[in-house]
UniProtKB/TrEMBL annotation:
InterPro entries linked: Alpha-glycosidase_related, GH, Glyco_hydro_31_C, Glyco_hydro_b
Keyword hit for Iron: no
Transmembrane segments: 30-50
CDD domains, sorted: GH31_NET37 (cd06592)
Keywords: Membrane, Transmembrane, Transmembrane helix
Species for this entry: Acipenser oxyrinchus oxyrinchus
UniProt protein name: SITS-binding protein-like isoform X2
Residues in Glycosyl hydrolase family 31 C-terminal domain copies: 603-688
Length: 690
């Protein structure tokens, strides 16, 4: 039967879409499918190539007004540079994670242009904030790592490549900068360098300063371990703990090292800075090595030593006695000591001399367990006056035993107000009985809990004891001396420097100037240096040259301290000692007081490194045998055995410097090679404007 076709009146051709699609699928099905797979495969390869190969190794993740933070995928580093990339402030290696993959930059805080966030799954969270308004002229980056698993170690290392670093903590052989120091990873807390010579000692702040114009602040209330690998880097690391302890710090950058320190470093303490009793600066300290077992013998040795000082015309000074002699004196009949009882004519004749004595006594927060004091505290139920552990069964307190100067002892519970008041009353009573003004409080360093692998209470974690002990010292008076400082540079106190060896090494005379600069940079300008010639040895110094060169440095410090009497070394040393004591009193003390006022008001160090005048001059970054008092006096002692000449660098091309010994004038920015410095002289230059 013939097929009859129906006419379509529409001008648009009739299309049977269903049959057409079927026909197309039938025809092109394989080709379209292959094309789709090919496109998907190419796109996947392209994305992977972009992420892994073509994506740049370095990505800007935050930008400020003049600096920015770069993530280097290749080296796992955070790099802070100028926006023009012509200067690197610091490079921080954060590669302490399992090398499972190189993380891609994906900012989880992308809605906030001043923050960057990233997560390593099951490992750690990273959050960086730009604190552009932290201080004028600087930009700061707050960096916080939060570990997501207790087995993860957070560790950031700060490169020493082309950067000289300063600050942190004192060490046994102090260097300036710290780039040449080697310190194994350990808790960043103050330790007693006599007992732990490889630890951190005496003065410590969570602040490091770099020559590129970078400053590092480590969060105060978070435990951290630090290691220093000479000429490579220093590292911050969280301690192993079941708690998810974060790693938190702030990095600030500025135009140069001086700028960034003045803007942010001088704010180490936000509390008002107070000056100690500056009258003490005029008084040499004489350490009396009393070998006595009774108060009468200590008294006799004090009078004898005072008479020798007077006979040798060494002027007024402070005679310092140790804790053992202090205890003996405190237990004697003090009325007899001051002649209030019936006395012989000899006692009456000596009374004016005794009253003229300026005595510095030594105390500590330790009490021996064999003393009546400790036994009485137990009988009266005052166990909580000492650092104690609670019994797990009966609930009573058991004082924690430790060792202090060879004796089993307990340590004052500094968080107990009643115990602190008892200690202050004890000190006040002793001051009244002995008529003393100057008190050295030693023994703040050391934590009996951590020494015995015990978890300390949070109120005494880290260096809290040292800070609280310094506050007690300040309550005693502004003539108090402490042996360790942290977070206490605002208090009106003196800090006694760590003892040094009697030699020409960085553990001896070469370490004095690096220590001076370290203390002053961290805000501890009022320090009592170690005794002339060093005090680690039990013997007197017999090296005449070492004694003289050491004395010359001490002359330009806040206080001159002696352990070896100068008359032991002969008439030459004795005459020089008289001369340098007068120079210190007449010329140096007024200068220190002048710049002490500047420190109190503006936070600038009294004793300054050479780079303070030339902060953009790389030559100045490693000079460790010269120092400035303020901006106007440069001191360049000899610290090499047998030398009577040395190289001296005079900073500041816009200035001139006059040698105070001979009146010669030199341009700043000049290296004086083999400059003559005879044994009886110290090179001192006065700055003058060109």
């Amino acid at each position: 039967m013939p097929h009859t076709r129906t006419r379509n009146p529409s001008p648009i051709p009739e299309v049977t879409w269903d049959s057409g699609l079927k026909e197309m699928n039938e025809t092109w099905k394989g080709a379209v499918a292959c094309l789709g797979v090919a496109i998907f495969f190419v796109m996947t390869i392209g994305i992977i190539y972009w992420q892994v190969v073509d994506q740049p190794n370095k990505n800007w993740i935050l930008k400020g007004s003049f600096s920015g933070l770069i993530w280097d995928r290749r080296t796992h580093s955070l790099i802070i540079q100028t926006l023009t990339e012509d200067k690197t402030f610091v490079e921080i290696d954060v590669g302490n994670f399992p090398a499972l993959e190189v993380p891609f930059v994906k900012n989880l805080c992308w809605l906030n242009k001043t923050e960057f966030c990233y997560t390593w799954d099951s490992i750690a969270d990273l959050k960086i904030s730009l604190e552009s308004e932290y201080s004028p002229g600087t930009e700061c980056y707050s960096i916080q790592w939060i570990r997501l698993h207790c087995q993860v170690d957070l560790k950031d290392c700060f490169s020493m490549d082309n950067i000289s670093w300063y600050g942190g903590a004192g060490v046994r052989a102090q260097n300036w900068p710290i780039n040449n120091v080697n310190i194994a990873l350990q808790p960043f807390v103050v330790s007693n360098l006599r007992n732990n010579p490889t630890g951190f000692g005496s003065v410590l702040e969570r602040y490091f300063l770099g020559s590129s114009g970078v400053a590092l602040f480590i969060a105060q209330d978070i435990p951290v371990h630090i290691s220093i690998d000479s000429q490579k880097h220093f590292c911050l690391q969280t301690p192993l703990s079941t708690e998810l302890v974060p790693l938190q710090y702030m990095v600030c950058v500025g135009n140069n090292i001086k700028t960034v320190h003045q803007e942010v470093g001088s704010q180490l303490s936000e509390l008002p800075r107070e000056l100690p009793n500056t009258h003490i600066l005029r008084l040499p300290f004489w350490k009396l090595l009393a070998n006595a077992d009774s108060g009468a013998k200590v008294e006799r040795e004090l009078r004898t030593f005072f008479n020798r000082l007077k006979r040798h015309k060494l002027g007024e000074g402070v005679i310092s006695i140790n804790e053992h002699s202090t205890t003996i004196l405190s237990d004697m009949d003090h009325e007899s000591f001051y002649g209030r009882k019936k006395s012989t004519l000899r006692h009456i004749r000596d009374l004016p001399h005794v009253k003229l004595l300026n005595i510095s006594i030594s105390l500590s927060p330790y009490t021996s367990v064999d003393t009546r004091q400790f036994q009485t505290s137990l009988q009266e139920g005052r166990e909580d006056y000492w650092l104690s552990l609670p019994s797990k069964t009966d609930g009573y307190l058991a004082p924690l035993l430790t060792k202090w100067k060879g004796k089993f002892s307990v340590k004052l519970n500094i968080t107990n107000h009643a115990a602190v008041n008892w200690f202050l009353d004890k000190v006040s009573s002793l001051q009244a009985k002995l008529g003393v003004e100057y008190i050295t409080l030693e023994g703040g360093e050391g934590n009996p809990f951590t020494e015995q692998a015990l978890e300390p209470p949070k109120t005494l974690a880290g260096d809290e004891y040292i800070s609280l002990f310094a506050e007690i010292a300040a309550k005693i008076g502004n003539s108090s001396i402490i042996t360790a400082g942290t977070r206490s540079n605002h208090l009106p106190l003196f800090v006694r420097m760590s003892p040094l060896q009697s030699d020409w090494s960085y553990s001896g005379i070469k370490g004095i100037i690096p220590s001076i600069l370290h203390y002053s940079l961290l805000g501890y300008n009022f320090f009592i240096p170690d005794a002339v010639g060093g005090s680690l040895s039990s013997e007197f110094v017999t090296d005449e040259e070492l004694f003289i060169r050491w004395l010359q440095i001490a002359t330009f410090l806040p206080v001159i301290s002696f352990r070896t009497p100068p008359w032991v070394c002969g008439d030459r040393v004795l005459n020089l000692t008289r001369s340098f004591i007068l120079k210190h009193q007449d010329s140096v003390v007024p200068l220190i007081i002048q710049y002490a006022e500047e420190w109190a008001s503006q936070g600038r160090p009294v004793f300054r490194p050479v780079w303070w005048i030339s902060p953009d001059d790389p030559v100045t970054y490693t000079i460790d045998d010269e120092f400035l008092i303020g901006d106007e006096v440069l001191v360049a002692p000899v610290t090499e055995r047998g030398e009577v000449q040395r190289d001296i660098y005079l900073p500041g091309s816009e200035y001139q410097w006059m040698d105070t010994n001979n009146g010669k004038v030199f341009d700043g920015g000049t290296l004086l090679e083999n400059y003559s410095v005879p044994l009886e002289e110290v090179a001192v230059f006065q700055r003058r404007s060109s």
